[in-house]
Protein 1
Amino acid sequence: MANESEVLSQSNLEFEAPASIAEHAHINAVNYEKLYQESIANPEEFWSKIATEEIHWFKKWDKVLEWNYPQYKWFSGGLLNITYNCLDRHVENGKANTTAYIYTNEEGKEERISYLELLEKVNRFANALKGMGVVKGDRVTIYMPLTIEQIVAILACARIGAIHSVVYAGFSAAALRLRIEDAQSKVVVCSAYTKRRGKILPLKSVVDEAVDGLVYVEKIIIHQREQKFELVEKEVDYYDFIYHQSTHLEAEPMEAETPLYILYTSGTTGKPKGVLHTVGGYNVYTHYTTKIAFDLKPDDIFWCTADTGWVTGHSYIVYGPLSNGLTSVIFEGAPDFPDPGIWWSLIEKYRVTKFYTAPTAVRLFMKMGEKWPNQYDLSSLKILGSVGEPINPEAWLWYYKYIGREKCAIIDTWWQTETGGHMVLSLPACKQKPGKAGRPFFGIELDVVNKQGESLGPNTVGLLVIKKPWPSALRTCYGEPERFEKYWNEMPGFYFAGDLATKDEDGFIMILGRADDVLNVSGHRIGTAEVESALVSSNSVAEAAVIGKPHEVKGQSIKAFIILRQGVMSSENLIQTIKHHVRNELGAIGVPDEIEIVNSLPKTRSGKIMRRVLKAKELGTDIGDVSTLED
Ligand code: WTA
């Protein structure tokens, strides 16, 4: 991330929304103001109306919001099934043959699945899960690349109330094991492998290592693809598992606060937290944000380039798009293989209208040059979304010019695993300010405050807080309620997002990055403490401190300072061994770009490492107050 004054000085650009979008948008600049005020004045009435209009309920709720600080419930007493909203209702409403997903990969393979076919496949999987004794509340870990089979497994869990825990298929065996153990999963669903840049990346062998000795894992369901393993003990082939099952299964009505999924995300301690979302509020909120942010129209072709291993995939590949009956493109592969034109060729081929990606990808394409997108017809595009990290004005402008061809709306969307859906965004029919995430979504009352929780004036850097619960807010951290409470206790009365921000005279929020020890590398969240504990678990590292450094493409890169254990000699080979160790502990996303061996680390008198000092020294900026420094 650029330094604060640099960022602030770049932020005066403004663009009017494209007239073609503004004219027919669900929400335009005028009704945004009005509806926003109404939604804040009476959020319960607002959400009650949306939930009634947009979502099917078997039984209406008793109360829209129950708030016993810090706990909250939305739509309690209401009965729904999120998969009914995502599948059955479209099938019943004349969309049985509408394509839900167009899957494609780097070899150009293509598979289409309609809403009816998806429903039937989900039912078969759900029936098979039921048949083996999986019941509501049981946990199922899913370790698969972005495929139709993965989405079927996700929805099958949701259909019967099993809690899915999707683990990004780039995490290592140790990281996967930690997540399976934490959730005590009864079932693990995996793929044999994924392919990236022409190379096979085995996944089944990672699972073998991760589940070794875990007696409570009763079954491992393997999507074998082109490989055929000799299956042992608990293992079963994905298609054998569902083969004899009925394509019919009534959608069971579930209470709105029934858990839907756990998704592990990084915090400030070494152990990731299992953010838990529940069905009712999450369905309402992801449905409505998808519809409004992307200004959905009947013929839209949507493509969110995220991976289903992260929250963006959960909310804006699976639940939000399906609940709206959208057709989505999903692509299993890297953005630059077979060549850096692959994404643009897919947009041309499938006539994608709404596209959603991360700034790190935009910067990667910027670096490779506009000659790649220029080869393709991108005229179908209307709205271009951004998520995961601040989009710097240069990247915004490039995206606007070379992908949007100066006729698309760019929507930045700020949110978190914990928030379930968009919190701050630039709506496509409203004014856009490159580099600023935009304004709060309906019902979201937020502020930028100082450490005492006092509201700050315009353009002053402070902490971003949200003042009231919203429907898709996390309900707890699985098995660790105290970590959930921390979100609401850090800054009493508010939800503490952990991000630094400013708010301008028009109420536009600019996000400046994390206020805590969480890094954002290529839009992926990773805790400094997670990397540090992976480092010190190597037998050559005594102590470690990790910082994020600004990086042209990735946003941030990871730099580690380590103190070697006594008797360990430094060498280039040693650094490679340590990197390899971190890869085994965490997966590729946690591996430091740089490791520097030092003799001591700056610490406070109470022994806390002052990463801030290391960072200032590394970047040549002001070290600030070091009165608590021990040495
Ligand atoms: C950052 C990803 C600036 C932020 C959806 C947040 C952003 C963290 C943006 C959550 C954005 C996400 N502008 N920063 N548009 N979107 N972030 O949980 O620091 O993986 O707290 O959720 O990413 O990351 P997470």
Protein 2
Amino acid sequence: MCGIVGYIGYQDVKEILLRGLEKLEYRGYDSAGIAVLNDEGIHLFKEKGRIADLRNVVDPTVSASIGIGHTRWATHGAPSRVNAHPHQSASGRFTLVHNGVIENYAILKREYLQDVAFRSDTDTEVIVQLVEKFVNDGLSVEEAFRKTLTLLKGSYAIAMIDAENQEVIYVAKNKSPLLVGLGHGFNVVASDAMAMLQVTNQFVELMDKEMVIVTSEDITIKTLNGDIVQRAPYTAELDASDIEKGTYPHYMLKEIDEQPFVMRRIIQKYQDENGQLTIDPQIIQEVLNADRIYIIACGTSYHAGLVGKQLIEKWAKIPVEVHVASEFSYNMPLLSEKPLFIYISQSGETADSRAVLVQTNNLGYKAITITNVPGSTLSREADYTLLLHAGPEIAVASTKAYTAQIAVLAILAVATAKAKGIELDFDLVKELAIVANVMEMLCDAKEEMEKIAREYLAVTRNCFFIGRAVDYYVCLEGALKLKEISYIQAEGFAGGELKHGTIALIEDGTPVIALATQEHVNLSIRGNVKEVVARGANPCIISMRGLETEEDRFVIPAVHPMLTPLVSVVPLQLIAYYAALHRGCDVDKPRNLAKSVTVE
Ligand code: F6R
């Protein structure tokens, strides 16, 4: 979702901002813009579409060493050049970029800005117009900026420049992510460290309701009361090559292929010196103290949570509920006496999940965040964090984060079982190592997956995924992958549920992808396949070695029966990838979607 960059220093800023915005493209956006300031004043360039389109309208002869940039994912007002950021105050003195949603913008407009002619349909414009109004009323720019912030309700990450002062970028944050990066003779602002790794790896986190005065030599963090806050920088442990595609045509394919490596890295990161998988004893204690675990997540992370429930209940014998964050937030179920909350979020920034975390923190319940991004909002605000160690996930469609989430949940389940004295008849290190090897074999089966995608999905308008038990959860994920990148209407169903309504949709040739990796439901899911075939469906059965029959289209080498989601999802990810490719879709940046969903 929207991304912000800013630079103040000595180099020409245009290319730094544009390159930074390119690194934020993965978050999803529909328009982009930059504003740079030099002795002639502000130069503003905005365009609907891609950064490449913005590059075409940036005047290459303008040179400046202070500027801000933005990628916009429309919430208030259609995607258009006018609604693209940066936005300017009526006189053009102040120029601002914003990520988030200002919930009370209409009230503020009515109360303070009746006489101002607004140019855009955005909620953002109200911020920059308010700053100008308060400056016109006699406040200093810093006071006006602070006063504006105190009036805003909602979420914001903001960077603002003043045409009358080339020495400062005004920055603020509440709920939306924003970092300040430190350099020698320059400083930067970014929604994500990746955007500014080109110039620095030293970053300072900002907390909610903080503002920062950023100059080329210094940064001053203040609370909205004006108190100065000291905070040490951290080193962003990202390798620039982690965020490059290399020889891959798409990030999604690269990230699918990285899954075996991620499995091995997770084993290594969670192993103690004796080779035993281990979790922070304080986390284990919290799990043991709980009478019920509530997993909260969205989208793919929710699907990983469903698998995690099976693992924790079967191995650690603790009841688990899994909830979609956006529902839980407004419809909280009756909680157990000693609940423990686990938030699963690749980005650690998802606003829906964060809204629940704020609620459960207020209720005094302990929370663990499972995330790929150290220092992310959900990580900071929970009591404990378990990291995925999956490396940056850039493609909008989540792949390696999903399997990493399941692996970390498996480790948590086994470590809890051990702490409870429950004997398990397998060694998870060995089982995950087998998973990694099988993933490798599946990644090598690209040709076969490409064939399946061409044969079943080249022209269809819909596709069903059916499975039972844990296969059902993987079907939900397979369907989500397919629909988000190929735009084929795809749904995952519990095999037994189809006949209660959905089977009415099966027509001649309707593709039905069935997963059959679970022995105890193998006959039942095959019965469900027969039911759809009798109504004309074109079935594609993907089964597990040992359970296969002649009719199966693809057989996955066997892994531990509880860990099958880690491998059965790989063919589904690849099928979705090739289906999207055949249909000419933008695999890494599907329409309407954002990688980091920072608005509720
Ligand atoms: C789908 C996908 C989304 C995310 C969801 C939650 O491929 O990526 O469904 O899983 O938006 O995001 P995180 O995990 O960052 O909280």
